[in-house]
Amino acid sequence: MTSLLRHIVSVSDVSIPVLGRIFSAAESIKRNFGQDPFSDGRIRLQAILQGAVVATIFYEPSTRTRLCFESAALRLGASVIGTENAGEFSSAIKGETLADTVRIVAGYADLLVLRHPARGSATEAAGLNVIPVINAGDGDGEHPTQALLDYFTIMERAGEQSQGSLTCVGDLRYGRTVHSLLRLVAGLRGTSLERITSINLVAPPDLHLPEALVTTAEQAGVKVQVHHALTEGVLQKSDFLYLTRVQKERGAVMVDPTAFALTLARAKQLPSSATIMHPLPRNAELPTELDSLPQAQHFAQAQNGLFVRMALLIAILRAEALEGLGA
Ligand code: NCD
Fold first, then answer.
1. Which DSSP string corresponds to 34-93?
2. How does pLDDT run across 253-289, given as a tens digit for each residue?
3. Residue 139 CB neighbour total at 10 angstroms
4. Residue tagged active-site, from 56, 65, 167, 244
5. Which residues, including other chains, have CB under 8 Å from residue 305's CB and lie 6 or more apart?
6. Predicted TM-score (pTM) above 0.85
7. Residues near ligand 1 with C-beta < 6 Å?
8. Among residues of the chain, what percentage have pLDDT more than 70?
């Protein structure tokens, strides 16, 4: 077993060369995936992680992330153990600490995918260093694998064009997916993976992006502009429009959600080549009537998570298999 990386707590844990290989592998898996579950391409993938056990322990609700990781592991031939609602269904309810749970899981599985409501929980779990840990969301901290699949989608849509603008809209204060995505955009500035050079932040003042992240982006040379409404001027200069919901469970309140929602009339103000993205789940900020717009890519984005997470699991558990995927 060789590994290209051990833990992913933050996007900054993935070096640029490793990220390049993960994206190449994800692209190759996607290209050869096909509809037929018994196609040669899919059967070959089944051998890669055969024998490995992946654990998914989620203390917060999830549809995509948990099922996507489980599907990625199963499609590579690994077995999956785990629990959703781990706050109630694990021994946490009996007072077990996260550290004890992680130590126990390490005796049963080869990798842990962890979602937890406390920022820093993944750092704590990885710090024990008993098993590779993937942060699947730590409170309002980070959600690095969501950022990787978001960025993969951006790269697919941008092609070789490296001067795009990304507009992030909604609850930028508590939305961890935006935190990870912006950190990633900053880290890729000036590299061969650069696709975004300017960022528009659109949020009410009390749900503004944490200032430290604005500084990180600016220091990396990314142009940052702050707005308090989704105006025509902002829409016209949005190559990528990344909408987010209000994180009510973290105490966020949005007084005027209509100012931060996309409507058909507003969507018409986007460039025709723009890409509409959303980490999902969505609320009123992305009405279903917009799903059929050519720019709307949120379902394709979620599907990309499968390919990116498959590549990621391989990079952590069996990196030598990346070569067979041309990565
Ligand atoms: C996001 C999350 O959990 O942070 N969901 C996801 O993983 N796609 C976004 C959200 O909950 O708003």
1. -S-TTSHHHHHHTTTTTT-EEEEEESS--SHHHHHHHHHHHHTT-EEEEESSHHHHSGGG
2. 998 889 999 999 999 999 999 999 999 999 999 999 9
3. 20
4. 65
5. 64, 65, 68, 145, 146, 149
6. yes
7. 64-65, 137, 143, 146, 176-177, 245, 279-280
8. 100
